[in-house]
């Protein structure tokens, strides 16, 4: 009987750890035309936000995003579910509600049997059904490595649009999911994660961030972004730069997956974590003598990670309880925003 290859063995990277380093992405986008030529384009590339937003009329904005990557798990259905959850998250991070998706598929058809590819697509369809949207079409190619994701369209009222660039001085920072997905995926690659750890990671990465749509209805929630391939520091820096503020993050308050610290200390972290630090470390002040494994947690690329929310300090506890009640038990207040040079201080 022929054994099918492990999905992760067919890819040189996995999940959002495949993303280009932030410095490389900025170089590639340098010199691109500015969005001001299109006044209806409320959000483009200028603040590295989660999705593009086009205002149709006084009551409607269209949100558009795309996200795809190579497998970080070997189960094809779980790969499809994780990739779909991750792609839809961009809509929720902008304060919108998704309305439909298109599949993006690249597969080495000479290495993977059709039934495995169907399971990937079925996993994505399952998550879209959970989000209440159809997979209305898509595009596929024969590719040397397996790639799957979605292009997703959503809607929101202009008043409920939440960018990553609108945090205010004094805002509390809330993170909705535990960090450590990249560390867990590195352990999977090297056979260092048990079934319980894998189940924990899959449960986290297949939890839809739909609470973002509800948070955006609150006037005291000022900015939202989702934490993916650039880690908590990288996506925190996008808020800091866009808002012209300094973020202070309390290291001890960061929520973590159960084995994240243990695995990081054992050396299970991704190349993307190292690239992330090289790209933006000059904008971050860390505690003196911080061990490399703790820095790896801060730069760890998250796949289908949580939302980073900036809200008025007096509303922080209420917002936190709202998030936990929506199915995010690890959600925590992790710091605050303040006046100062754009960047992050970790204490």
In the predicted model, the low-confidence regions spanning at least 5 consecutive residues are: none
Report the β-strand fraction as a percent range.
15-25%
Describe the sheet with the most strands.
Answer: 7 strands, mixed
Query: What's the total helix number?
Result: 11
Radius of gyration: 19 Å
Termini distance?
55 Å
Total DSSP E strands: 13
From the spread of the alpha carbons, the general shape counts as globular
Rounded average pLDDT: 93
User: Residue share in helices?
Assistant: 25-40%
Structural class: alpha+beta
Strand ordering within the main sheet? 8-11-7-12-9-13-10
What does this 3D model show about the protein?
The chain is of the alpha+beta class. A hairpin with a 2-residue loop joins strand 2 and strand 3 (60-69). The chain has a seven-stranded mixed beta sheet. The chain has helices spanning 22-29, 76-93, 114-131, 181-189, 195-205, 211-215, 231-243, 260-265, 271-280, 292-299, 316-325, and strands at residues 41-43, 52-57, 60-69, 97-107, 135-142, 147-156, 172-175, 221-226, 246-249, 284-285, 307-311, 332-338, 343-346. Helix 2 (76-93) packs parallel to helix 3 and helix 9 (271-280) packs across helix 10 (292-299). 33% of the residues lie in helices and 23% in strands.
């Amino acid at each position: 009987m022929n054994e099918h290859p492990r999905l992760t063995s067919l890819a040189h990277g996995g999940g959002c750890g495949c993303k280009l380093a932030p410095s490389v992405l900025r170089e590639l986008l340098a010199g691109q035309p500015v969005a001001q030529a299109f006044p209806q384009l409320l959000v483009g590339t200028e603040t590295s936000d989660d999705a593009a937003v086009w205002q149709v009329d006084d009551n409607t904005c269209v949100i558009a995003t795309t996200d795809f990557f190579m497998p970080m798990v070997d189960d094809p259905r779980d790969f499809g579910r994780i990739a779909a959850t991750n792609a839809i998250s961009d809509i929720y991070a902008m304060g919108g509600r998704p309305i439909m998706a298109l599949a993006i598929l690249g597969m080495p058809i000479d290495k993977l049997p059709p039934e495995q590819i169907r399971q990937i697509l079925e996993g994505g369809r399952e998550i879209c059904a959970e989000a209440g949207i159809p997979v209305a079409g898509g595009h596929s190619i024969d590719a040397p490595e397996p790639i799957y994701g979605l292009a997703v369209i959503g809607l929101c009222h202009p008043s409920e649009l939440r960018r990553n660039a609108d945090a205010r001085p004094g805002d509390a920072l809330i993170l909705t999911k535990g960090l450590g997905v990249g560390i867990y995926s590195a352990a999977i690659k090297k056979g260092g994660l048990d079934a319980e750890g894998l189940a924990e990671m899959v449960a986290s990465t297949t939890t839809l961030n739909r609470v973002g749509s509800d948070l955006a209805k609150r006037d005291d929630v000022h900015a939202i972004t989702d934490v993916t391939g650039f880690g908590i520091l990288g996506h925190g820096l996008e808020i800091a730069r866009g808002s012209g503020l300094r973020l202070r993050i309390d290291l001890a308050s960061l929520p973590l997956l159960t084995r994240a610290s243990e695995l990081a200390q054992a050396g299970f972290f991704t190349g993307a974590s190292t690239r992330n630090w090289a790209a933006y470390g000059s904008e971050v002040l860390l505690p003196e003598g911080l061990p490399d494994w703790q820095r790896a947690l801060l730069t760890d690329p998250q796949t289908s990670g949580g939302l980073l929310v900036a809200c008025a300090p007096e509303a922080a506890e209420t917002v936190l309880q709202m998030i936990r009640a929506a199915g995010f038990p690890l959600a925590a207040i992790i710091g605050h925003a303040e006046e100062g040079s754009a960047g992050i201080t970790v204490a």
